[in-house]
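Reminder to self: tokens first, then the designed residues, so the page reads top to bottom the way the pipeline ran.
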């Protein structure tokens, strides 16, 4: 029985628990044995994709009529939690595929686009990536330079560069956000479904990462990439559209970070019970117990935040600002727990055979992407004061 100090299991439905348990088994059996090595090698373990698809983990909260699992948002969150207990890179893969590629096609696509893309993405046949961030526009995507120009025949030509794109080099399709027809106004931002084998499209892996190493991160270059008129997501319009995708992904991240925190806490707890120093297990020392008590307390608070947020999301009443609070709190909490857990493991804590330092390094990416911790602070600051402190 994994960490559940407040019997939060009792607030979950049978189906939610069953989904969580099946992903937990998958992670224990298939992710844990290989992830340390994949991380050191700097390779995303793509052999996991077929099983993830079979378990319904790709776009799990999207409807069954498009080949998805049709789960509620709490079950979806529990999936993210268990995947990230394995590794943030594995959860990032599923988040991008589901929340950042399938979701915009579902929310802003035509019926034809949905029927064409979603079943193949749920089955893992097609992997996607989400291109919003640019070399010069990260926290402020409204300044993006990438431009789509409409041609006389209704087709589009896209030029620009995207940076830090998860799944970029393995993707068959990219959802690319671009301004249309030379208009600098952010209202003109639209989403395009771009096949990555289109002429002029290149994806190059970003090397030298010290975080999220078991995940592909790429730079995309679009050099006069020509796409047909029906490549545009017809219902997308303005920065609000990609931000809606980020809200979906950030919700999942709030749960995912809990998974990383639980993984570190459990590793530290087990180590504390077995590592003997000065003639007794280090868990018998008050300083180590204080660390464990703090970790557990923060995990329980985070679990309650995410669970309640999931219930609000299922009721259709959650706000992006509430998602900001959950992402900001849970990722920060997990980052602190990972660091403390690593320290409790002493010298062993720097080895890849233990998970805490890998989680610690991964969580630096999670702290930065999907709105940095600072940006979520500003979102909350604006929500409570009504004053915009961004610029
Ligand atoms: C591993 C990884 C995977 C990623 N995957 C994707 C992906 O799949 N698709 C995608 O589009 N993007 C992706 N990103 C990009 C990510 O979303 C950006 O890195 C993030 O938005 C921050 O942008 P930046 O790196 O340009 O930092 P900057 O925006 O340059 O920020 C630098 C620092 O300034 C701070 N700052 C910025 N503005 C303000 C302000 N107004 N007030 C106070 N402080 C401020 C930030 O908090 C940060 O500390 C990924 C990033 C990483 C690291």
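Designed residues (391 positions):
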């Amino acid at each position: 029985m994994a960490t559940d100090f407040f019997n939060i299991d009792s607030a979950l439905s049978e189906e939610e628990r069953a989904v969580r348990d099946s992903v937990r088994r998958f992670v224990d059996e298939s992710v844990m044995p290989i992830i340390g090595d994949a991380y050191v090698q700097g390779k995303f373990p793509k052999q996991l994709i077929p099983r993830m698809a079979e378990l319904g983990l790709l776009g799990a909260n999207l409807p069954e009529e498009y080949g998805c699992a049709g789960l509620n948002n709490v079950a979806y969150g529990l999936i993210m939690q268990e995947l990230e207990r394995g590794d943030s890179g594995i959860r990032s893969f599923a988040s991008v595929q589901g929340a950042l590629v399938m979701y915009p096609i579902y929310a802003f696509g035509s019926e034809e686009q949905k029927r064409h893309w979603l079943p193949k993405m749920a089955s893992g046949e097609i992997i996607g990536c989400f291109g919003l961030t640019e070399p010069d526009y990260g926290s402020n995507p409204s300044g993006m330079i990438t431009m789509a120009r409409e041609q006389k025949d209704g087709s589009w030509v896209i030029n620009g560069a995207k940076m830090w794109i998860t799944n970029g080099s393995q993707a068959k399709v990219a959802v690319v956000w671009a301004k249309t027809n030379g208009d600098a106004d952010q209202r003109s931002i639209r989403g395009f479904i771009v096949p990555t084998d289109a002429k002029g499209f290149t994806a190059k892996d970003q090397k030298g990462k010290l975080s999220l190493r078991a995940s592909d991160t790429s730079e995309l270059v679009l050099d006069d990439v020509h796409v047909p008129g029906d490549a545009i997501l017809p219902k997308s319009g303005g920065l609000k559209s990609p931000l809606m995708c980020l809200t979906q992904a950030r919700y999942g991240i709030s749960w995912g970070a809990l998974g990383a925190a639980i993984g570190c806490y459990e590793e530290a707890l087990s180590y504390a019970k077995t590592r003997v120093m000065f003639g007794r297990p280090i868990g018998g020392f008050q300083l180590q117990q204080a660390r464990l008590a703090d970790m557990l307390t923060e995990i329980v608070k985070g679990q309650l935040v995410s669970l309640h947020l999931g219930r609000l999301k299922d009721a259709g009443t959650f706000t992006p600002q509430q998602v900001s609070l959950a992402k900001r709190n849970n990722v920060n909490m997990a980052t602190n727990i990972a660091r403390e857990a690593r320290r409790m493991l002493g010298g062993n804590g720097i080895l890849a055979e233990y998970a805490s330092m890998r989680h610690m390094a991964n969580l630096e990416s999670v702290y930065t992407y999907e709105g940095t911790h600072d940006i979520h602070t500003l979102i909350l600051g604006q929500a409570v004061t009504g004053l915009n402190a961004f610029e």
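Strands lie at 128-131, 147-150, 156-166, 173-180, 189-195, 201-205, 217-227, 276-277, 280-281.
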